[in-house]
Amino acid sequence: MFAMEKIRNVALLGHGDSGKTSLAEAMLFNAGVTKRMGRVDEGNTASDFEPDEQKRGISVSATPLFLEWKDCKINLLDTPGFADFIGEVTSSLRVIDSGVFVISAVAGVEVQTELIWKMADDFGYPRIVFINKMDRENASFQRCLDQLQQVYGSRVVPFQLPIGEEHDFRGVVDLVSAKAFIYGDDGKAQESEVPEGMSAQVQEGRDKVIEGAAETSDEIMEKYLEGEDLAEDEVLSALLNGISQGIIVPVLCGSSTHNIAVDLLANAIVSTLPSPARLEEVRGTKKGSDEGVSFKADGDSPLAALVFNTISDPYVGKLTYFRVFSGTLASDSTVYNPNRDKDERIGQVFIIRGKNQIPVREIPAGDIGGVAKLTDTTTGDTLCSKDNPIVLPSIKFPDPIMSLAVSPKTKGDEDKLSVALTRLSDEDPTFNVRRDTEVKQTIISGMGEAHLDIMMERMARKFGVNVETELPLVPYKETIRNTSRAEGKHKKQTGGHGQFGIAWVELEPLERGSGFEFVDKIVGGVIPRQFIPSVEKGIRKAMEDGFLAGYPIVDFRATVYDGKYHPVDSSDISFQIAGTLAVKNAVEGADPYLLEPIMNVEILVPETYMGDVIGDLNAKRGRILGMESEGGLQVVRAQVPMAEMLRYSIDLRSITGGRGTFSMEFSHYEEVPSHIAPKIVEASREEKKE
């Protein structure tokens, strides 16, 4: 068990394909955890063990890995770099103390790096940048550094310089110690003098490092400006202070696949990034109130742990990953979940390295662990002591941005479908499931096309349920413009009792959003009292069936004012059918038209893309309501028909290169334009024929 000061909780962050998983693999190998380094393209890495990750060659989940390095325990969270899996990054950021941003020396600073950097800024996390893939063709350390400094300013300071680039890359110069490290094929470094020809470059780099140190302390700044020599330990102490406060972001470089300078990154993690002790206290609230509760963030305080991931395993059951912020979570104990107001029995706790779970007696304050088969606990919940309850701030996940309708491929899958979807949504809070009663479809929502594809593959693999997907149906509605009257006559003569019922009904339009109103104006018993509800039932059935295209008719008043009955042949069903026929006949003369749902849309984009985004919204029949600046980005508010927004997550990603985000909610219904309505009616009729 490691003391709090000896633990480092670090996320590997950055754009997809920057080499985070390979970097984790090299770190595990250097620490002696694995005998050989796995490769992403061979599907044998420690963190990408799920079949959907191996098939695509990308990380889909944030995987905890741990290693021991220089008497410290490093808990690495290898996070996905693709926008569809941003929920995994969100949950990881809630339980770490610092981050390593991995940047490809070929591609430079990419879009997901920018987005996640901002998220890390919101948490105020210190970080290191590791420029990876220095051995690749077109790799350039200086180009990446220039980009970083252009976007994030002078706080980005190079602490290393590469020795050679592309195929000639063989090591680095450490600018703090002014030593060179040359690497062999075995990933082991030979310390040597700075190569000839790099002296001036190294001196210039060292000056920048000392400048960075001076920025962190007025005393050192004074000495520096007066030209005094600064002692190495003085510079080092100032740098450490600057890094832990996030004033300085050190830039290192290397190659994860060739294991060059990865050991120096591990050294930097344990020597410069903060331990969980940085927190000092854990803050939360009392159950069911906003009243604050706080504990000292150490092992002697009451238990406070946050669940940051839940995995449904068909064999093991539910796996729950958590971070202990204070106290200790022990095996064979009982804890309290204040979010659900339930006690949870804790079986064997374990520490996690990819798919391997190593049993331990307890998980101490500051550490990350897991437990199987918790009954009620889900991601974002707190586990604590019942005697000292606390609710930790939950994890705020982004809202899903793309929806599909799902249906089982076979009759046998019907019963299993809802169970499987529920289990998947428990596992991934960015995956939502709902039943749309208006269009009679089961709707799944997620962070993009790839996210939903993977969830459906996972459902087939883990739960044996195969589904078909399509874009959701738009819940159009129908209504009327004019008042109209009509008769509904149902007359059927057979041997014995026949069927007889006549109802006269008047339809009047109501204000948009008023719904449906039924009025009984029958006098003189022309329709007996017991059959009036039957007429209403028939009218409601006609409403549901629609007239133009089979969509529900809304916002009208139906008044039954006359009719006829037969003492023997009239019945409940006769007047139901009469009510239905009366509405169908009356709607025809009431000038029916189609309504479509309009959505309130809010889009956040860099200013560069504003013109393209607004042009696209106009093409989608959108109305721009307003624009304003927010934190260097532009916010566009608009109202757009839902029918035009079904694939907007794909469109916006394409227009903005992944830099735009949006949210959407229902606003109101409006008339479908006359040039579009006939196409919708025709499509609906074709579908009914099929």
Overall geometry comes to: elongated
**Strand proportion:** 25-35%
Low-confidence segments: none
Q: The CATH topology of the largest domain is what?
A: Rossmann fold
Total domain units: 5
Strand order of the largest sheet: 2-3-1-4-5-11-6
What's the level 1 CATH class of the largest domain?
A: Alpha Beta
Q: Helices and strands: which structural class? A: alpha+beta
Roughly what is the average pLDDT, rounded to an integer? 91
Total of helices: 16
Which percent range fits the helix content? 25-40%
Q: From the coordinates shown, what is the CATH architecture of the largest domain?
A: 3-Layer(aba) Sandwich
Task: List how many beta strands DSSP finds.
Answer: 36
Q: Main beta sheet: strand number and arrangement? A: 7 strands, mixed
The CATH superfamily of the largest domain is P-loop containing nucleotide triphosphate hydrolases
How are the SSEs ordered, and which strands pair?
Layout: E1 7-13, H1 20-30, H2 51-56, E2 63-69, E3 72-78, H3 86-93, E4 98-104, H4 111-123, E5 127-132, H5 141-152, E6 156-158, E7 160-163, E8 171-174, E9 179-183, E10 189-192, H6 199-215, H7 218-225, H8 232-244, E11 249-253, H9 262-272, E12 281-285, E13 292-296, E14 304-313, E15 317-326, E16 329-330, E17 333-337, E18 342-346, E19 349-353, E20 356-360, E21 362-363, E22 368-372, E23 382-384, E24 402-408, H10 413-427, E25 432-436, E26 441-446, H11 449-463, E27 467-470, E28 477-480, E29 484-492, E30 499-509, E31 516-520, H12 532-545, E32 556-564, H13 572-588, E33 592-605, H14 610-619, E34 623-630, E35 633-641, H15 648-656, E36 661-671, H16 677-689
Helix pairs in contact: 6-7, 6-8, 10-11, 12-13
